Amino acid sequence: MKMISKENRRSKAINCKHYIDGEFIESDQLKTFNNVNPATEEIIGLVAEGGKAEVDRAVSAARNALNGPWKTFTDNKRSTILRKIGDLILEIKEELAVLETLDTGKPYSLALEMDIKRSAHNFHFFADYLTTLGNESYNQDNIALHYSIRRPVGVVGMINPWNLPLLLLTWKLAPCLAAGNTTVMKPAELTPMTATKLMEICKEAGLPDGVVNLVHGFGADSAGAALSEHPDVDAITFTGETKTGTEIMKAAAPTLKKVSFELGGKNPNIIFADANLEEVIETTLKSSFMNQGEVCLCGSRIYVENELYEEFIEKLTNRTKALKIGDPFNEETNIGAVIGKDHYEKVIRYIELAKSEGATILTGGGRPEQFEKGYFIEPTIITGVNRYSRCVREEIFGPVVTVMPFYTEEEVIEQANDTHYGLGATIWTNELRRAHRVASLIEAGIIWVNTWYLRDLRTPFGGMKHSGIGREGGAHSFEFYSEVSNITIKL
Ligand code: NAD
């Protein structure tokens, strides 16, 4: 992998403007906020701060574009543009990976191999999927023919988080465009750069002006709230915290917007003693600490069958101690910085809480000594924690896991389900019947057996309980981004 020199990184950072009706524009009164690199704490650029005025303009551009040339584009033409966007992302993948790394503090290697390549794949996947779609049709005893047609929902508002900025934005944008909608997007205030760069790509790929619009800003009392409550937005798709989801739902309710929510998780990893321990350790290391644990699907509550418990924690601890934490641009780095000061303090507070409750910190437990600057947190494994502790019940969203032993299948299912969340889970066992049985009883939208993070974009993705509303992926995405009408013809 080609690494980027220190001098080159800083110079790659961009100032971020809004993108409305095909033009990059400043905010009214040139309002901006600072963009900070969490690995160095340096200000790396300025971001236009949008609010109601900018959202109004963007929504109006998106509304007009719905009835412009975009409306006449065939499925094939939309598919060609989506494919081109994917290709252009890959053409500048290193540049995008630098921007993602500067914004998030994640390892450059991860940004390149996962975030950016998967962003391109999102477009390539939906470009292909779009051309395979059919419609329902029923012949009712030769009395009538019923068939459905699909049309765009209209103007879709997209509100995105900071952890996988381009990956999650494109996971929404690609199907939204595939289904013929127009959009106003608000990326997370902490990670504005790749979304901005993507706008250049959309233009170059041939999207008509106004189809894609981008407004930077904050959430409450800012661009996010203005978008959620805008009367001319037809649907809101949001990925972020559960409590933000409730705010957005309230704001969207008076105008009855369609909503799709991908929210928080507190995902259990259930490890039975018959599992292949080497595979378990290898994958659990990733499901615990990939992207500094800042992935909604990370397994932060690890339950291990008692007879395997001691061996498991010894092996996981040794492997965790060997992880390299530091400069995200260093090729060796496994763990970068967490997203920013507030989040750093929140994660540290949970670790301190565990200590004050008498838990054992097997490794990690705070800030690594060698760094003067940057929001670095050691990968941390906690044992001996009470199942009712906030550390076990609340989403920490950092490089922190708790490990607990269990004795019976019933007991571990009960504990795994004892949460408001229901996003993901992993089950490790080589016993076929148990795998099916336990998987069917775990209350989560995404359940992996003997693996983690293995994705096929056709499958339903989303959470149950307080982890989400609706599913994304393949046909599920089209369901959200389309209005379906049934037509009945009397024969
Ligand atoms: P967040 O909810 O704080 O912010 C997400 C976005 O919402 C940001 O763009 C923010 O500006 C905006 N926002 C905040 N308040 C708002 C309001 N009142 N109205 C409108 N918009 C508002 O989430 P975050 O901290 O950026 O992301 C981390 C969270 O995202 C975690 O809970 C994580 O589990 C979740 N997440 C879920 C998935 C999933 O697929 N289920 C994927 C990634 C992240």
Automatic annotation (TrEMBL):
One Pfam family assigned to this protein is: Aldedh
- Might you give the EC number(s) for this enzyme? 1.2.1.8
Q: Where is the Aldehyde dehydrogenase domain?
A: 24-486
What terms describe the molecular function in GO for this protein?
betaine-aldehyde dehydrogenase (NAD+) activity
Keywords (alphabetical) are: NAD, Oxidoreductase
Catalytic residues as annotated in Swiss-Prot or TrEMBL: 262
Question: InterPro entries of this UniProt entry?
Answer: Ald_DH/histidinol_DH, Ald_DH_C, Ald_DH_CS_CYS, Ald_DH_CS_GLU, Ald_DH_N, Aldehyde_DH_dom
What PANTHER family does the entry give? Answer: 2-AMINOMUCONIC SEMIALDEHYDE DEHYDROGENASE (PTHR43720)
Similarity section: Belongs to the aldehyde dehydrogenase family.
Q: Tell me the protein's name.
A: 5-carboxymethyl-2-hydroxymuconate semialdehyde dehydrogenase
Q: Which organism is it from?
A: Cytobacillus horneckiae
